Prior knowledge:
Helix content: 40-55%
Order of helices and strands: EHHHHHEHEHEHEEH
Radius of gyration: 18 Å
Largest sheet: 6 strands, parallel
CATH architecture of the largest domain: 3-Layer(aba) Sandwich
Shape: globular
Distance between the termini: 5 Å
Amino acid sequence: MVPLQALIFDVDGTLADTEADGHRPAFNLAFQEAGLDWDWDRALYGELLAVTGGKERIRHFLERWRPDELERPGLTDFIAGLHRRKTHHYLELLRSGAIPLRPGVRRLLEEARAAGLRLAVATTTTPENVITLLECAGGAEWPGWFEVIAAGDVVPAKKPAPDIFHYALDRLGLPAAACVAIEDSAHGVRAALGADLRALLVTVSTYTGGEDFRGAARVVASLGEPGDPAANGAGEGDCIDLAALVALHGGIYGPG
């Protein structure tokens, strides 16, 4: 059997719970800056998360709630400009320390690195967002811990399409059976399974609690922390450590 060799992480909602207190207010700041009266409250943003990708989300909002804006000259460039400003505001929030890592993320990354496992990211967010999050959370060396950062528009189709996972696996030079994927959303589950990543852990985030995670090998509230029940979402009085991921992988593919 192929042994476990790499962990592939989603970012938004998985490494950090970024959507409600990061991306959402950053979008609103960009709208205000552009003189727009749009306001994405928490409930509306939860609906908009059905669409992956920031530019795609803005366009969906216009189609659904502001169809008159679809006639705006240069609409594609206008959306791209809004998204650039949103990214600027999001990065400022990251640098302010307003968006911490989720429970257990730092612990698991350090444990995996110490054990010699390879690390990768597969996400729809921009590379700059990923790198800044990692630098703010762990220091300037943290982005270098990840052998592959598959992010943003490096593939044409975003999650739930499997393209970003195929890209990450290709850059790693590994089969899906050598990896565990860690996600937080139904879109992520579908994308991972579409790339045959059957060793799939879901850590449910703020907006994804009611989603359909069928096909995931295990679903938990968070990676958890030893001795901290408030942060522990593993569901069995423990936390998700590297041994748990090795067991999850072995339960699907056999002991490696």
